[in-house]
Amino acid sequence: MRIDDVEKRAPVGWPAGLAILLGIALRLWQYLANPSLWVDEAAVARNVLDRSAAHLFGPLDYGQVAPPGFLLGVKLSTLLFGGTEYALRLVPLLAGLAGPILLYRVAREILRPIGTIVATLLFSLAVPLIFFSANLKQYSSDVAVTLLVLAAALRIARSVFTPRSACGYALLFATLLFGSQTAVFATTAAGAALLVEAFAKRRPDRRLRLALVAGWAALVLASAFYGRSLLTPADDAYLHRFWSSGFMPRHGALAWLWIAVRNVFAGPPVRLAFDGSLHYAVPVLFVALFGIGAVALVRRSSLHGALVVGPIGLALLASAAQAFPWNPRLGLCLLPLFLLGIVAGAESVTSIGRWSSLRLAPLLLVPFGAAALLDQPPPWTPEHLRPVMQQIRARWRPGDVLWVYYGAGQAFDYYAREIPLAGEVRLATCDRADPRDLLRQVDAERGRSRVWILMAHGSGPFGFDERGMLLAYLETIGRRLDRFHAPPGDETPNRAEAALFDLSDPARLAATTAERFPLGDIPAPRTWTCYGTMSPGGPAARVMTALPGGE
What we know:
Layout: H1 3-9, H2 13-32, H3 39-50, H4 68-81, H5 85-88, H6 90-110, H7 113-125, H8 127-131, H9 139-158, H10 163-179, H11 183-200, H12 206-229, H13 233-242, H14 253-265, H15 283-300, H16 302-320, H17 335-349, H18 366-375, H19 385-394, E1 401-404, H20 409-415, E2 424-427, H21 436-443, E3 451-455, H22 466-477, E4 479-486, E5 496-502, H23 506-509, H24 541-546
Parallel strand pairs: 1-2, 1-3
Antiparallel strand pairs: 3-5, 4-5
Helix pairs in contact: 2-6, 2-7, 3-20, 4-10, 6-7, 6-9, 7-17, 7-18, 9-10, 9-11, 10-12, 11-12, 11-16, 14-15, 15-16, 15-17, 16-17
């Protein structure tokens, strides 16, 4: 027996158990912190709460896309436990808690003991995996389903098929594809790898395996076509424009590929928990390690290589075919595969020649994961609207009016159910073709002595500080009486905040108008970006007209 085989069978014991427990604890910490629903979560929540279970099988409102299995699970949770944030996030949490266990089970099949511990620990510490484990989006369940596919494929490779077991695996994969649209990548790679292996090794059950893989192929095609049917023409136009950078271009594909893979490890310069990136230092090191690890896995075992590298390659092909936008957040299901790849790369490098004694070298990867987590530690509370609305209600007086910036509209609709305000509420609409339109909307409150302005989410399209413009205008025509945001330390442009203005002073009101207020450099019209979450009341006709390729 080879040394590598002996090492793989060696127990990893309590260190792996501690790594798993750490991952579970961090995910529970984020969940129990109970942050407010941010804009994308609120849009999903509105779909789940406002629709019957049967209506969750069709296209969703507000530009949202999610697999029906995930939505039905969330719906069941709300029927059992109510429409609270805890109930809405229960399905992602359960998937997130299963993640470290599933990653460990896969890693111990393809990595050495030290590598298994390191991969499990890096997975447990990964910021986006912790964040989305307590977030009302399907990304956490996508990760769990991908790992389940890999674990099942590895078990199938060790098994001898019977008709009964083949039917069981067919049912399992049908359920997984029902619960995750991105499972098509792992399922396709697993089916192809298992089929090639069965005929290459002339397994006695190869015909049964062929039938199973044929069934999987039919399920994958059905899942892909069904997922495509969930997109309305408007959804399709919006997603292709919004995620345009995620589609591999015909020219400059290599440069695009470098940036795409680098962003998995480094991401954009502004670090956000929900951008899907690991935010590791020295990303070029990890890109190189992944490349080395991919080659090493393929050489060591074609099956293992196909299971780890295959889904990533298929996602890239889908991006080139304009069928799937490559983005660290949308492709979070691939993140465990990248982690397995870099650890395999570290194992491979330290096994060359005189470095063979450096079996513990993969542990050097752990500080990168720990540093990324310490740089932006949990719990994360983006767009923490609930405490802001609670403060507004505590300071509310008869005759007050609330003016809601459209970026806060989705979350406001959700929280208005539990934090109602006895007064007038105005929900602004998104334009993004003429910034003055927002000023015209707030001008309707001229003459009132107490006007609350509630804001959350982005400060405007493509770098234009729309929220800053709005507040500057209100400071000019009125007198600010109060202002606060949550949490107190949040200085991001997406933060939830409220300001109270007195707009009844004639002298201040005469200072300027929406038409005369200086705006500086006005961005090009971006009306199409008002689609989806930015139109909490539904998109206006001008937005729909702009989607296919207008302004």
